[in-house]
Amino acid sequence: MATIRSFWLFMPQDSIIVFAIGVPERALSELGQAFGSRFQFTAVAGEAALRERLSQAAAPIVLCGNASGQSGEAIVGRLAEWHKAAQAILLLEANRLVNALGTPDALRDFRYISLPIDIFAARQTLEAAAEIAALRQENRSLIGDLERYLSTLRGASEDRIKQVAQERDEYRRQHTRMLESIRNAERIQRAILPSEAKLDAIITQYFLIYKPRDIVSGDFYWTHIIKDEERTVFYIAVADCTGHGVPGAFLSMMGTTLLNQIVAQTPWQSPGSILEQLHNGVLNSLRQTSRRLDIDDGIELCLCRLEGMKITFAGARRPLYVVSQGENRQWRLEEIKGDKRAIGGGRKCEAGHYTDHEFEVPRGAMLYLTTDGFADQSNPESERYGARRLRDKLLEVAPMTCLGQRFALEKELSQFQKNEPQRDDMTIFGIRAPIMSAAAMQLPSGAFSVTGNLIL
User: Fold this and answer.
1) What is the pTM of this model?
2) Number of domains in the chain
3) Which residues form the domain of 162?
């Protein structure tokens, strides 16, 4: 019995077992080195062995590659027959992933990790699967409690037993609907956010770290292009809404919608003017001007308007970090503080206005728009990473390529955070000047909103 128990999903030390079938040893080794303290990857040889292990797990996670003549997709498709609560993650080579993504809805019903492995994307996939597995195990535990309660009622009337059984079944249905709703909300939110594929087409060099604490996020990022025969202006914003999870996601979608409406109605505005209108829009949308309602939710946001090498910045409780080389070729960081006034906020709303900061940056300078999630993350010793340490790290990585900066920051976070749970949503958007790509400069005159699916 001791051997069987070692394959339960949640170990006593809170290590999470991931069963791996058809996964190359090299990939297993790389995943183990990256996430060994959080996830334990256990190779399983063949379908029969996997089914035996699944029978001993409450809410297992299975990483599926190609095994015994079966594709990973085929194994994923049959997994629900072997274990209804199993979480499937498909391992796909990059060329197969591109082909699959070209098929509508091909990857809609399961998660995946691509080869070669992107550590940041793999962590997000594994953590999302672990969160759902934990919910399912909690569900199983609650159902087990109801089952035990049913057993104590065997001497009671049959009507009472049926009533408890109906309550158990109703709970199962509600829990399933809740998980399906959260997954659908995740797909909708990602469809609204600018996709990295579209950002690649319009920005010369950038990186993006976007890490929701839950399945859906209270952080969001937004971009917009306005162009005529003489000028091309690029807007970019990074925002942190009150809360996280589902409440934060609702507010983030409202913020994105209001920003699109504001720039569509009056193009070429300064960031300060846009923030003022966004502030009023949030107050009116949430009816925060009414004394009868106690909705104090708001948004902290940094917004830049970029035109050539000229930058105009306005912030609502968020700064902009600019790292550039001086005349002595030394890199230096400048923090441009935003106003101490959030967007919205109801009774906590501060009076004042949003200040525009205009300046020019030299070629090669880095702009960093961030939320406070990275700096607020703590480690197992309850030590906060902190804004000062983040500024020092940004100054250190600025000379690297944008891809190298992203990997360095992800590694820094992983080494600092260790097994400590993520406290908040995290977003860091880094852009190197000059911003606009040749393709973006060749767009026809008009306004373009870069979403997950279209450049409108």
Assistant:
1) 0.65
2) 2
3) 13-187
